[in-house]
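#struct-pred

JT: dropping the chains for the assembly here, can someone run the whole complex?
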Amino acid sequence: MDANYIVMVVVLIVWTGVFLYVWSVDRKLKTLEKRDEG
Amino acid sequence: MLKLLIFPAMALVIVMAFVLPSPMNPQISLGPVDAYRIFYFHVPAAWVAALSFVVGMFQSISYLRTKDADYDRKALAANRLGIVFATIFAKMTWGEFWNWSEIREVSLFILLLIYGGYFALRSALNDDDVRASFSAVMTIIFTVSALFLIFVLPRIYPAFSQHPSDTIVDNQGKMSLSPMVAIVFGLSMVTYTALYFWLYDITIRVDRYIYKLKSER
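RK: done, full complex below.
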């Protein structure tokens, strides 16, 4: 397999991890903000 | 829900960056042409860093005009993210980890020192109002320095840069990107900008939440 495609798959996995992490931080923050409002 | 679009957009940029031919012409390439695929990520990261410093400057001006501490938190968040995006750069672009004769690398190093001073000053001052005022003035001065170091200095001394100067616009001022490369590059710029504003929003909200917890104690 072309090395470029291996790097591409690795980058996609890293990006998925980064996105999920940022998304989870956003969700947790929203939960905290809602809890404080209520 | 727009935030959800960032994921497939960036995934598409990643796939296209590896599937499309390298954006560099192999006949004028200084190194392996595949290394120039970093163009799709490196340039938007630099753009977002510059944007972040400018956002920080406008928030600082707003703080000095209104003395509203929320603008200080917004400026701090922008400067933090500016530094994060400014440090995303790669060895493979120029083939060496560090090169003192590469004007863009040296400019970035000076920029890191300048903003290091900003964060050091913030941590050294205990009074909230004094810290916010000093930080606002420093941000305005530093942003002018940052824009000079990012955009002006490398163009005054182009001979000291190993970065290709004709990647986007050639010597005649014409677009040198092929249509497909230009579309992927444009999508990457938009996606990076959207990602920046999302991270900026989260950073401000975290700072606000921490401030609220501290003030309730």
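JT: nice. The interface with chain B takes residues 4-5, 7-8, 11-12, 15-16, 19, 22-23, 25-26, 29, 32-33, 36 of chain A (CB under 8 Å). Chain A is about 90% helix and 0% strand.
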